[in-house]
Design brief:
CATH architecture: Alpha-Beta Barrel
Helix content: 40-55%
Number of strands: 12
Largest sheet: 8 strands, mixed
Mean pLDDT: 88
CATH class: Alpha Beta
Radius of gyration: 21 Å
Low-confidence stretches: 189-197
GO molecular function: phosphoric diester hydrolase activity
Shape: globular
Organism: Paramecium tetraurelia
InterPro entries: GDPD-Related, GP_PDE_dom, PLC-like_Pdiesterase_TIM-brl
Structural class: alpha/beta
Family: Belongs to the glycerophosphoryl diester phosphodiesterase family.
Distance between the termini: 59 Å
Number of domains: 1
Protein name: GP-PDE domain-containing protein
Order of helices and strands: HHEHEEHEEHEHEEEHHEHHHEHEH
Oligomer: single chain
CATH superfamily: Phosphatidylinositol (PI) phosphodiesterase
């Protein structure tokens, strides 16, 4: 028993030592803008879909407003049309935005339907935004975003991540030399309900130089290794942990769209589980920071949520309300462009 006890003490001591002073480090974020945030001089201001509570999501008007405001990072999602155009759109389906029960891949770009007069906001089941005052009421091309905003960081999720789409996105990133200002990720690739290749493995195989954000499985793996003390001894394959804070809006939205009592109970469990993870996350984020890994929270839309995130020591906050987040970070002297 004494050997087991001393072995356990030795393991804990070694784990704690390498947790505080990690030897497995990354340095993939080479752009000078990222270095400022790694040095904790500011909190990364990320505009979710351009700020979809202030402008129609994923439109050039939304991105321009966030850019003019001084956002550090534009978050967006990408799909591909029938004629192989990479467009900015969160849902691969056109139902919520355009009222059409079809997918982007079913249309050529020039034939895509118009927006509805008002669009329901995600994470807020009873909230809508009018499209009537939108000066750019169309789905923009990813290439146009890259050309229009050459000096802003971009966080990209590929919604239809088959190799052809990922290669097309990568070709555009290379064409405009944006490898150092892009973080990307994607969903699992499914064929007949079988995962044939994990999303980030595909992205890495096509361009390992572009930083990748964690998958859900990757986040859970990191927390499991953290809780067991094993994290300092394992490589972390991806580069940015983007975790949900599970805000009240998000929780109520999930309950609203749940189709059964079991789904509602599942959401109640996850709501409380994420709250628990938030309570133990500050040391983890310190460790990830020292390993050169960025941590963002999404999607936060009021000052109480911003404060919850800041207390954990995260690097960035993703919001639908870029003006409000800017005001809060300026007040806290954490805004990067003061």
């Amino acid at each position: 028993m004494n050997y087991l006890f001393y072995g356990f003490i030795g393991y804990c001591t070694l784990s704690l030592t390498f947790f505080v002073f990690p030897y497995k480090k990354k340095n993939v974020f080479k752009h000078s803008k990222y270095q400022k945030y790694l040095q904790r001089k500011a909190i990364l201001h990320i505009s979710h879909r351009g700020g979809c509570r202030e402008n129609v999501e994923n439109t050039m008007q939304a991105f321009q407003h966030a850019y003019d405001l001084g956002t550090d990072c534009l978050e967006m999602d990408l799909c591909m049309t029938k004629d192989k155009k990479v467009v900015v759109l969160h849902d691969s389906s056109l139902l919520r935005m355009c009222g059409v029960e079809a997918h982007v891949k079913d249309y050529n770009y020039k034939d895509l339907p118009k927006f509805l007069d008002k669009v329901r906001l995600d994470f807020a089941p009873n909230d809508y935004i009018s499209t009537q005052n939108c000066k750019t009421p169309y789905l923009p091309l990813f290439e146009d975003v890259l050309k229009k905003f050459p000096d802003v960081l971009i966080n990209v999720e590929i919604k239809t991540p088959d190799p052809e789409v990922v290669k097309a996105v990568n070709d555009l990133i290379l064409k405009y030399q944006r490898q150092d200002t892009i973080i990307w990720g994607a969903r699992c690739i499914l064929i007949s309900n079988i995962i044939v290749q994990k999303q980030n493995e595909l992205l890495k195989s096509i361009n390992p130089a572009i930083p990748r954000f964690f998958t859900v499985e990757g986040i859970m793996r990191v927390y499991l290794l953290y809780i067991t003390g094993l994290l300092p001894f394992f490589d972390i394959p991806d580069d940015s942990m983007q975790a949900p804070l599970y805000t009240d809006d998000f929780y109520n939205w999930k309950l609203h769209v749940a189709n059964s009592t079991s789904e509602k109970l599942q959401q109640m469990f996850f709501h409380n589980f994420v709250w628990f993870l938030g309570l133990i996350s500050k040391p983890l984020f310190y460790h990830l920071h020292n390993r050169g890994i960025f941590v963002y929270y999404w999607v936060l839309n009021n000052e109480n949520e911003y404060e919850r995130a800041l207390k954990t020591g995260c690097h960035g906050i993703m919001t639908d309300c870029p003006t409000l987040l800017k005001e809060h970070l300026v007040k806290k002297k954490l805004y990067g462009k003061q």
